[in-house]
Each structure stands twice: as structure tokens, then as C-alpha cells.
Amino acid sequence: TLTQQNGRTRSSHGTAGAVGPGRSGRNRKQQPKVVRPGEQVLSGKTSGQELKVDNDDLVQMPEDDIFVIVR
Fold first, then answer.
1. Helix and strand totals (H; E) in the chain
2. Taking the alpha carbons of 23, 35, 15, 47 in that order, is the dihedral positive or negative?
3. Quick one: which of 32, 50, 56, 63 is 20 to 30 A from 12 by CA?
């Protein structure tokens, strides 16, 4: 889940609020997560699925849609 930084305008910059278990590789073994909760990320403006939870605007997206992780 990506928390938006600037309210209504869909931004390509945000904070990873939660991450899933990671994806499975070709051999069906779990791959290590690349993104960790709390990290700043940059993504495409049209990436992911917009959600509204408890009046918070969030974006859910696959790890492949994240361009940069700011550490």
C-alpha cells in the first residue's frame, strides 16, 4: 500500500505503508521482499489501484510498478 503525500493529486511519490509476503519465483519458492514498510518509493502516476480506507487515500500496487526505493 502506498500512502499519498499530497492529498487529492495522484503523486508518484509516497511511503510504503504495508507490504505483502513477496512473490514466488519460477521454482515457486518465496522471493525476498524488495520494499519494506516505511520506505519512500517512486512509481508511475498511473500505477496501482486507488483505495480509500478510513478517509485515507491509498494506492495498492505490485512491486514491479515501483521505479525507485529511496533509502
1. 0, 6
2. negative
3. 32
Q: Say if residues 60 and 53 touch (Cβ distance below 8 Å).
A: no
Question: Model confidence over 45-69: pLDDT tens digits?
Answer: 778 888 899 988 888 888 888 888 9
For 19, half-sphere exposure in the C-beta direction (CA atoms, 13 angstrom radius) is 18
Q: Which contiguous run of DSSP H or E holds residue 53? A: strand 49-53
Given a contact cutoff of 8 angstroms between Cβ atoms, the answer to whether 60 and 43 are in contact is no
d(C-alpha 23, C-alpha 26), whole Å: 10
39 or 6: which leads in pLDDT = 39
